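Collaborator request, handled under Task 6.
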Amino acid sequence: MDTKTGRQPSTFAGKVKALLMRAWRERWTDIQWGVQLKKVLASTGGDPKDLPGLLFSEILVHQALVGPNPNTLILSFLKYTVLSQVVPPSAAFNLITSFDDLSKPFCTLGLIDLAEAFACNLSFTCSLDSSLTLCKCLQNTLHWLMLCIHQSLQMIKDGHTPLEILAIIDSASVAAQKIGDNTTVQALLYVAMSEDTDKFHDFEQTKVNVQGTLSQLQSDVVPSQTRLKVASALKSLLKVQDLALPTQSVLEVSHLAICPTINGLVSLEAILNPTSDVQPFVEQLCVTEKLLKLNRSYLYCELFRACFMGLVDSADSQEELKWAAFTYLKLPQVLLKFNQQAPGQDFGKELEQGFDLLLNSVPLLDLTDVRLNCEALLQLIHECMKYDLLSQPQIERLLTRRRNESAKPAKNSQPTTQPSASLILRAESTVTSILKTLDADCSKNQDALMGVLCQMLSGKSFELILAAAAATGELQSFATKLIKINEFAKQTQGEAGKAAQTRVLLFDISFLMLCHITQLHGIEIFSQMISMSPEYADSFFIQWAQRCLPEDGRYKCVDNYSGTDQAKVDLLLSQLTRGDEIKQSSTKWHEICLNAPFAIQEVLFAWEHGALGSDNVKVILERSQSRMCSIPVVMSAWLCSYMNTVGDDAREKPLQMLQRLQVKISSPDPEIYYGERSHLMGIILRKMVNDILPPHIKDTSMQFIPPNAVPSAVMEKCLKGVMAKGWIDLRSVHTLEQLLNLCGSDWFCDRAILHMLNSSRLEDLTQALGLLFAVFHLDLEHITLSLLLHTVPKLLQSADKQQLLTDPRGYILAKACVLCIVAAQTARSVAGKATMSHTRRGYSKRSRKEMELESLDEPDSRPVKRMKTMEPQLTLDSEGFNLDFLTAKDDGEASPIIDTKDPLNKALANLLRLMNAIAHSTTISPRTSFIVAFIEESIKCGGQYSQFIHQFIPPQMLSQIMKSIPGVFSNQQIVHICNLAVPTGRKVAAKCVCQNSKIRPE
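Structure tokens returned to the collaborator:
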């Protein structure tokens, strides 16, 4: 009993056999056969899916191929039955490919013609078979044709040369070529390649065997016409490999005079990340290079150009040393990393070409030489020579060209100041010698340590050493050695006289140096040191800096000042009020620093209550400055924290005390290096106090946002200036950084994207995106989250902002999303592997978005209330956020491995859910165009980058888009959107390719 039809197979088969015999006797036409067959099916209630086994085995094998020649009438019936969709094509393909009897050449020829007719006239959109079944059948059919050719060539090789064998080769070659030239078949074969890798490997091996066997046969054995047909067939089948992703850039910048992205990335790295490791920056450049498809020599040229532009822009400013350190110390290390990553490439030639391109910018190089009072390019090339990056002939050729093309005026006199490039290069070797000296035993070589530290405080020496140490990766080592010295000097051993004074100075100078380093580079500079040597976590300075030292305008809680010893506070107060000398031989200086804030608190409260007059306070503050410069620093830190806890009325007296502490006083003892220490103390206090000062007395050199200005107006003006120039200058970097700190990533991303979308010209939009992509690296991870969770959803869901999504704006916005997603994901993976995270200082804390995303994972968390609007909102918590919608799969198929705790994964999945909802809406709008552009741009990333984005596309989304906008994606795009490594992805790809066959005809 047939379980599906409920009838006896013999009865059903008998009716089909009788019908066949009648058709053969009466010589029915194909149409007559089809009409009568359908009547039989209707009378018996037969399902076409049950028919192939009966029909093909009884008719095709036993009847059509029973003799040496095929029964052409029965084959025509079979052809009509399949092409009219009475039976599934897979049954026909399976029986054709199972025939391997070359002793019946005419039967083989008949089946080849039949296979060609089926494959070339098949309706991919209306087939009774699933799309994935068609993939496998077409691959098996082409494999069978190749086997026919190979077996025939083997027979010729063995000495059998009947004409029928050559006819089989010709016919199979032509059929394979026709089938292989069909673009739909090519895409389906690409899907089949992933469906069964073993079968595809056998197919590829058969093609190799055909080519090898044909090459072994002499030309007089196989006619040239036959050889040409076989070669054409093999060439057609190679087109499957052409579906590999082409080389396309997500953002095309080659037409711009300056690459804005590279210029911006270099500026941010040089100015804001001077202590960062070289490797993350190199990875950043590599990702940008791939996304923008930059030529390597062009990339080198843009790196050099950005450095020289930065040197000119920062001349005579506080950032000049940073740019010089990056250009002459860090950039050669970056180039060395590029050389190490691709040792097989001709690095020297590409680097030489990069310098050649730079030499075309004669005015820039001349201006740099004039501003820096040196041969800027010459010094850079010499630094590259130290790492053997260029050969001597290359260097001579470049320098000769530079001398011949230079148009700068001749020097009339020697420069009055040392060039920053020369200073920073000398500082590099100085750092090495200083580190060796600081390694000495503190208890035995105090005088030598004292001499080195005091020498560093003279003039610009300390700034030079810090810049050189940061660029060479030695700053952390330098800070570690200062911690050791400070720890040694904080305790007393009962020394007297000069030994006690030396210990005081060692403590004071090391404390001031560590304060300055922390203010410049953040407390994060000590993070790796603590992880490698946990004992440093309990050191006095690190504990004090974490609890008390203001950073980036953020003041610590006044309650952090704890652990006071009232007896020591009283003693210190007595010494300050009476002017008694502090006993150096018995004093623990870290205890003085811990208790000094409470002493100044007593003075402040006494002044506020009238117990002390302003003259008394002035004298006390001057005495606190007279010997130890670290004491005014810890006092000022407490005063700043205190002022953040009181109202405006109570700030007057603390503010006067802060200002008084910044006034320089003269020291009676020139041997204690008071002038140098007080100079560094003044720098520390100005930076610490500046953010809390009233607007009219602020240090404007450190303030890039005017006190009473509206942040949105400041950002608009800043971005206009940046877009007009096409590159990011020094002031703009600091302005944008302060705006991001002040207003947060949501606000910053909104304003930046809206400013970009104000333009309607594609050239302007492209340049603006190139600049903003670099600017977003101020805090790439959080700004990307803001873009995906806040800015783009707001544009997609707001009816009055649809015009911002019309092309080319929507097209550029899609590019922005893809660029940020790929860069953020890469930066996170690199940071996970690196020993030190490449996160910008000031942004190491978790953002509000990350905490909101995490709270959604908690089952007891209450959903956030949201404003009701006319349009349904699709948000992370609309159905309780999870990634289950991505796991639509067959039984037995493993769920995709996705880190559900990662904020970027959640944000991207949420955005694609929103896009899926829009794709299923009943209207076509600019929102739909944006979604298409987003997917197209993500394809251009290629490899792991596009796979990362595509893994979050809901399975039904692609098919729905193609229903709404038929033919919007090519077959090549479809097979790279879907994840062919899993069955669900292959099904979706095959279905969409078949769906596309109607829209994209051959």
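The cover message to the collaborator said: "The chain has 44 helices and no strands. Residues 1-10, 834-848, 854-882 have pLDDT under 50 and may be disordered. Please let us know whether this matches your experimental observations."
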